[in-house]
Amino acid sequence: MNQIKIYDVAGAAGVSLATVSRVLNHPEKVKPATREKIEKIIRELGYKPNLNAKGLASSKSTTVAVVVPELTRSSIAEIVNGIADCATRRGYLLRLFVAGRNNYDNPEEQLKAEKELWGTVVASSVDGVLYINDEFTEEHEKLLEDVPMPVVLTNTPCSNPNIPQVSIDYYRAAYGVTKEMIDRGNKKIWMIKTIRNYAMNNLKVDGYLQAMKEANLEPRIIEVSGLTERNEVSFKELLQKEHPDVAIVVRDSMAVSFINVARLLHIHIPDELQVIGFQNTRYAELARPKLTSVNTPIYEMGEKAMDLLTSLMECEEDEEVTNIKQFINYNVIERDSIK
Amino acid sequence: MNQIKIYDVAGAAGVSLATVSRVLNHPEKVKPATREKIEKIIRELGYKPNLNAKGLASSKSTTVAVVVPELTRSSIAEIVNGIADCATRRGYLLRLFVAGRNNYDNPEEQLKAEKELWGTVVASSVDGVLYINDEFTEEHEKLLEDVPMPVVLTNTPCSNPNIPQVSIDYYRAAYGVTKEMIDRGNKKIWMIKTIRNYAMNNLKVDGYLQAMKEANLEPRIIEVSGLTERNEVSFKELLQKEHPDVAIVVRDSMAVSFINVARLLHIHIPDELQVIGFQNTRYAELARPKLTSVNTPIYEMGEKAMDLLTSLMECEEDEEVTNIKQFINYNVIERDSIK
DNA sequence: CTGAAAGCGCTTACAG
DNA sequence: CTGAAAGCGCTTACAG
Fold it and tell me: Over its length of 339 residues, how does chain B's per-residue pLDDT go in tens digits?
């Protein structure tokens, strides 16, 4: 009720509301003297344009949707942090959509929910979308075609070169790590992944397989539940029989579980068994021994994705944004879990 | 461009757009026959009202702002998950504001940034705000007075009984845990906290102090950096000299650091030293020995906060929402770090 | 129960 | 460089 409107500013400045609007949106079109006067009044009154009205009139909402599968996984929260900081710098607000955390088993239901979600996102009148989905499939890709605003896939690998995306080259990362361990003289190298298939993790597996193949080594992929209580049981059964020289684990928290079980069985790390995780989360540092992990700068990824989306949203009809597919660099943080 | 508008629905149904609008907002005012016809067409066309227009016309945006200090801390992400799920159920969208992660040292700057933030939040035309701030002070409380929509403090303790809030009784939780350990015959009980003062943690300290006082025991509060690399140094210096029977640590990750250092110094846990954390995060389960922790159901807290906010937003002028201050129950998850 | 019309607070061609 | 006016897509009294 006591919200200041553009009329109030115009009245106080003795100009028409059109001029105030211009100061806000096209300051170069206003005479410096009047502009400064109006700017001063805007500041004094603490005027902030009503976003709904602005959005309706200009069909630009200066809002971006962030669609995530859930927030609890530390990687996702960190990406969103990066997005948020970059959005603030660039003057965009965020709409947050947490996509279905249910219906995991029934793919059909899930796809329907996903369609629903896109409907809501589109209707929420945002200027662009940052989309994070670890289980991105071709079905999801198809849904993108009907979205009338730019979408940037974030940490969501997709082979289609026409879809904007910012990610990490997980294939190359896993390949590099595997090759490095081979070069250090290890032969029995396992890859440990979740049963559930995440696009990112499948890329890691592929990179691992490629490196093993090139070295003529026998690959072995262990699939376990993503749940700590369950996978520790599997790890125990497994490690009671045999263990590799090196285990490359698709994510840190699972790598820590693996280490914990190995130690319980008196398998010495790193002398008898070396372990490498992915993501370099806090788990890596709090584990004992501290976990070597592939650091994937996920905060930066959020920033870059927002940057890319901004250029997509703000590009003129005739221009074209190049470099639509970007990779963030990774690096390996060596700690005590390898020799 | 190919977005369907209310006009299109009205045209297809052979009614005026007012009637379509009524079907959406006050279905009881429309004759069932026409209502069903219109609803069918809405479904077929996949019509979704433009939120900006709706918001402008009704001065209700069905959007709620979520203001958080940052997302990376697992507790906060989990609260937001709870908020998001509840918001979806209740038909609200979310606007996400990640408050200043900078200017920590300069309180004046920070307050100014906070004012700025509230300006943006208010101008973003949301119907209500869920506000999370671990460093909530009286200055922050004052800023709330000028906010023209309901605000629910979430996991943000505040003594003012007129401000809606959903939290956990950290005082009672810490008091209870301390008393329990005293009852089990322990005498030398320390409280370990961060140097930085968080409102929640200060309540934990108060509860601890009260229990110690009642038992006539000498309290001791250890303050360390919140950063793992730093606090592990402090812990080492400390533990080389002496250790308590029980350490109650304000958060899990710090408790895990403490355990790690103790084990390095061959202090046996739990025989010589027992450790209790707060929050029952995944760190607790991945630690060795597994950490006993006060489980604070933070997801539920998000849900309850959103519920409370909804009743605040939707309450009629004449009604009043009671039960404006809510506590979520906590419980202690006993694991291997205590006897 | 339904329609015509005003209005929400802005933006942006169009004149001048 | 500035103002008057139309319009963005809805909602909601007000009549009927």
Answer: 357 889 889 989 889 899 999 999 898 888 888 889 899 999 888 888 888 899 899 888 899 999 998 777 778 888 999 999 999 999 899 999 998 655 566 778 888 888 888 888 988 889 999 999 988 888 899 999 888 899 999 999 999 999 999 999 999 999 999 999 999 999 999 999 999 888 889 999 999 999 999 999 999 999 999 898 899 999 999 999 999 999 999 999 999 999 999 999 999 999 999 999 999 988 999 999 999 999 999 999 999 999 999 999 987 666 777 889 999 999 999 999 999
For residue A49, give the nearest of B49, B94, B123 by CB distance: B123
Domain that holds residue A176: 170-295
Distance between CA atoms of residues A81 and B69, nearest Å: 10
- Cβ separation A101–B93 shorter than 8 A: no
With respect to residue A211, please indicate whether it lies within any of the assigned structural domains: yes
What's the pTM value of the predicted model, to 2 decimals?
0.88
Indicate whether A76 and A105 sit together in one domain.
Answer: yes
How many folded domains does chain A comprise?
3
CB of B326 within 8 Å of a chain A CB? The answer is no
Are the CB atoms for A118 and A111 separated by under 8 Å? no
Residue A150 and residue A236 share a domain: no
Identity of residue B48? K
Helix, strand, coil percentages for chain A (3-state, nearest 5): 50, 15, 35
CATH at residue B279: 3.40.50.2300
B47 plus B81 within the same structural domain: no
Q: Measuring CA to CA, how many Å separate B218 from each of A113, B117, B179?
A: 57, 43, 13
Start-to-end CA span in chain A (Å): 67
d(CA B88, CA A96): 11
Cβ–Cβ gap A3/B285 under 8 Å: no
